[in-house]
């Protein structure tokens, strides 16, 4: 099972600074948060935050990024992305506020070790 983390193309509802974000001792650079409305793409609406993650990957640093998407019904689904300094990319998906998520409400995804960020930002579910 794959998870699509962004789609569409409208201006962001809310976002926080990316590359200027301060480093965290345990996770590397905090690339911030971006909230995507239905149909928006991270590559467009969260370009600054995505660029922060790409820069960390190029420089061999760890980084985090939180992406909130809305379902068709308007429910938030939050993915907390982690890039390790070895280039491993993984995420924890929280769909507990999605009324139609079924039994799969929280799960993890992994792209393994990468050399470039996937476009769109998608990884396979762990254990699928």
Task: Throw out a few tags for this protein.
nine-stranded mixed beta sheet, mainly beta, 128 residues, 2 helices, 13% helix, disordered N terminus
Condensed summary:
The chain has helices spanning 42-45, 47-59; strands at 2-4, 14-15, 23-24, 28-36, 63-70, 76-83, 88-94, 106-113, 122-125. The chain is mainly beta.
Structure description:
- The chain has 2 helices and 9 strands.
- The chain has 128 residues and is mostly beta strands.
- The chain has one domain.
- Residues 1-30 are annotated as: Disordered.
Mean pLDDT: 83
What is the number of helical segments per DSSP (H or I, 4+ residues)? 2
From the helix content, strand content and strand pairing, which structural class follows? mainly beta
> Could you give the distance between the termini?
6 Å
The profile of the biggest β sheet is: 9 strands, mixed
Strand content: 35-45%
Radius of gyration using CA atoms only: 14 Å
Number of domains: 1
In helices, the fraction of residues equals 10-25%
Region (Disordered): 1-30
């Amino acid at each position: 099972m794959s998870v699509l983390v962004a789609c569409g193309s409208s201006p962001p509802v809310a976002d926080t600074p990316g590359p200027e974000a301060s480093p965290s001792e345990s996770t590397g650079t905090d690339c911030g948060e971006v909230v995507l409305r239905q149909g928006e793409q991270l590559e467009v609406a969260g370009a600054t935050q995505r660029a922060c993650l790409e820069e960390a990957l190029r420089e061999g640093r760890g980084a985090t990024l939180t992406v909130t998407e809305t379902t068709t019904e308007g429910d938030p689904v939050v993915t907390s992305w982690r890039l390790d300094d070895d280039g491993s990319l993984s995420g924890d998906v929280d769909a507990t506020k999605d009324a139609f998520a079924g039994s799969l409400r929280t799960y993890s995804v992994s792209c393994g070790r990468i050399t470039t960020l996937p476009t769109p930002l998608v990884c396979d579910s762990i254990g699928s």
